């Protein structure tokens, strides 16, 4: 059975909504009203000290918003194709996450100085080890045994992550212009401009100049046809899903903020380090990308999973550092970006292992186990430094 051409696909799917096609009724679907309900709960609970039952409701709405975000992200991704679909979800989550980080920094407190560093590093470890490890595990356990992806695209993305992480999280631990693991004003400005420039260059390469490097491939290394099993959604359905994706992501990050006081009190009562709060919040915020990556891996689109993982790490650093550099002009107090010794070792090991995973363009169950072990080590050492 041959692959459909654009003309064949147009005759099979019919006219776009608005041109006489039957209009869908998305308001009847749970993926429509759950994000709106979560946003309403967020509005009602914002700025209030929530009791236990209210926190439970927030948790349920958070899960529902995450699942809805994944659904709508997949609809948008199917319409625009790869790698644009992965880019939409990664950038949307990161932009809202940056707003959350800036808001928490502005609120002050003892942890404000290290909050950006802890959250960004947690995002890097979650994406490069947690999401990558789970995606390779899902792909290799579904009868394929070998996960195949494009080494050129994934290698370039990994190089970008490593460069950004070293420039913003490693160098401050060794510079001598400021006391402690901090940048001077000029150094922070350079890091912000460099991060934003490299992020822009990566997006240009990913979506324009070398888009084919970031497309899913078959086990034989040929490009995977994304329309082989289902026609793309209509413009109206895509626009509807894009709007609801934004609503769901706002709800996810906002509800994570509402739950953070309960998490902070639980962490304090358990005698755990304050950095655990940033790790837990990062885990919640990155849930949509994690679930989307797992679904893609189970469908044989490992490259999409890697696009989500590395793209999220790049966006997290490339957008967060410029934002906090700008906000730090109005905020008083230190801005600690340099990692400690333990985290430096974990980051270095992650860079080496990731390179060995990506370069062949093929990975097995062993590589997934190595990444998941590194992720488990990060979580364990976060709770027991």
TrEMBL record:
Coiled-coil features, chain-numbered ranges: none
Sodium/calcium exchanger membrane region domain residues: 56-207, 240-383
Entry keywords, A to Z: Membrane, Transmembrane, Transmembrane helix
Bias-annotated ranges (Basic and acidic residues): 1-11
Alphabetized InterPro entries for the sequence: Alkaline_pH_Ca-Antiporter (IPR052946), NaCa_Exmemb (IPR004837)
Annotated segments matching region Disordered: 1-26
Pfam families recorded: Na_Ca_ex
Membrane topology: Multi-pass membrane protein
Subcellular location: Membrane
Entry's transmembrane regions: 53-72, 84-108, 120-141, 153-174, 186-205, 242-260, 266-287, 308-331, 337-358, 365-383
Name of this protein: Ionic transporter y4hA
Annotated source species: Streptomyces tamarix
């Amino acid at each position: 059975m041959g692959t459909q051409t654009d003309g064949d696909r147009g005759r099979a799917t019919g006219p776009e909504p608005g041109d006489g096609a039957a209009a869908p009724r998305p308001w009847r679907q749970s993926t429509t009203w759950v994000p709106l309900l979560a946003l309403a709960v967020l509005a009602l609970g914002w700025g209030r000290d929530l009791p236990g039952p209210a926190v439970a409701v927030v948790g349920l709405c958070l899960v529902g918003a995450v699942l809805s975000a994944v659904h709508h992200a997949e609809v948008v991704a199917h319409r625009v194709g790869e790698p644009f679909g992965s880019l939409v979800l990664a950038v949307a989550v990161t932009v809202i996450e940056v707003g959350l980080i800036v808001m928490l920094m502005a609120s002050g407190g003892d942890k404000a100085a290290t909050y950006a560093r802890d959250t960004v590093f947690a995002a890097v470890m979650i994406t490069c080890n947690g999401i990558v490890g789970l995606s390779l595990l899902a792909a290799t356990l579904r009868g394929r045994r070998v996960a195949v992806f494009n080494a050129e695209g994934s290698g370039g993305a990994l190089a970008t992550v490593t460069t950004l992480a070293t420039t913003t999280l490693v160098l401050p631990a060794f510079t001598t212009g400021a006391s402690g693991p901090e940048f001077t004003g000029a150094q922070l400005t350079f890091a912000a401009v460099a991060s934003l420039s490299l992020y822009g260059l990566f997006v240009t390469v990913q979506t324009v100049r070398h888009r084919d490097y970031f497309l899913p491939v078959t086990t034989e290394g040929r490009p995977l046809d994304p329309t082989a099993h289902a026609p793309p959604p209509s413009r109206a359905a895509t626009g509807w899903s894009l709007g609801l994706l934004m609503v769901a992501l706002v709800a996810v990050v906002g509800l994570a903020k509402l739950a953070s006081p309960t998490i902070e009190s639980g962490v304090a009562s358990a005698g755990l380090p304050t950095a655990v709060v940033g790790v837990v919040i990062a885990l919640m915020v990155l849930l949509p990308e994690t679930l989307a990556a797992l679904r893609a891996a189970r469908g044989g689109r490992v490259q999409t999973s890697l696009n989500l993982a590395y793209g999220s790490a790049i966006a997290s650093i490339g957008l967060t550092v410029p934002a906090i550099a700008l906000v730090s002009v109005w905020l008083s107090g230190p801005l600690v970006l340099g990692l400690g010794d333990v985290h430096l070792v974990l980051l270095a090991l992650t860079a080496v292992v990731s390179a060995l995973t990506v370069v062949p363009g093929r990975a097995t169950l062993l590589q997934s186990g190595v990444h998941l072990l590194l992720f488990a080590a990060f979580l364990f050492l976060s709770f027991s430094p």
